[in-house]
Amino acid sequence: MSTKVEYELVEAAIDARNCALAQFSKFCVGAALEAEDGTVYTGCNIESAAYELTMCAERVTIWKALSEGARRFKRLAVVADTERLTPPCGACRQIIWEFCGDIPVTLANLRGETETLQMADLLPRPFDAQFLEETGNAG
Ligand code: THU
After folding, report:
1. What span, in angstroms and rounded, lies between the C-alpha atoms of 35 and 20?
2. 1-56 pLDDT, tens per residue?
3. By C-alpha distance, which of 19, 68, 66, 67 is closest to 47?
4. Could you tell which of 46, 56, 60 is best to mutate to test the pocket of ligand 1, judged by most ligand atoms within 8 Å of the CB?
5. Which domain CATH number covers 55?
6. Distance from the CA of 79 to the center of ligand 1, in angstroms?
7. Is the CB of 47 under 6 A from ligand 1?
8. What's the number of domains the chain is made of?
9. pTM for the full predicted model
């Protein structure tokens, strides 16, 4: 674990994970997102009996932060109870990139193991607003 802020963010994600509604997969995930002003937003995965309506911890967290007015973010932590650290799924990578940009994402497990990756490495060659703009396809 490299910095105190990183550690605190992982702790917040671990707490959020305890609220996971993962009754179908039993795979509980927590996330914590630090906004530019230092506010930390948290979320957990929420599963639906109509499985495809399930929402990942990362997106729950981002929707919470955006809906409370936050717009600029510094870092994200994602925690699951896996030996191999759990990375964000493809849909979450898209949303993290679009709304948080090239932030560091700390993956962590319950044994205190962590790895921090940049979003640009997790989502190379993104499709985003800038791409639409640059290709003359922005409304
Ligand atoms: N899940 C997350 O919340 N985040 C991830 O990064 C990976 C997957 C959730 C979705 C679903 O509730 C469960 O984990 C199994 O896929």
Report:
1. 22
2. 457 778 999 999 999 999 999 999 999 999 999 999 999 999 999 999 999 999 99
3. 19
4. 56
5. 3.40.140.10
6. 10
7. yes
8. 1
9. 0.96
Whether the predicted pLDDT of 77 surpasses 80: yes
Q: Both tokens of residue 51? A: 């499985």
CA pair distance 45, 136, nearest whole angstrom: 36
Q: Sorting pLDDT into bands at 50, 70 and 90, what band is 92?
A: very high
Q: Which residue from 23, 89, 109 has its CB within 8 A of the most atoms of ligand 1, so it is best to mutate?
A: 89
What residues are labeled active site? 58
Q: From ligand 1's centre to the CA of 26, what distance in Å?
A: 10
Joined tokens for residue 101: 């940009």
Q: Which domain holds residue 82?
A: 4-135
What is the average pLDDT value for the chain, to the nearest integer? 97
Measured in Å, residue 133 CA sits from the centre of ligand 1 at 32
Cα–ligand 1 centroid distance for 134 (angstroms): 33
DSSP calls for 20-84: -B-TTT---EEEEEEETTS-EEEEE-B--SSGGG-B-HHHHHHHHHHHTT---EEEEEEEES-SS
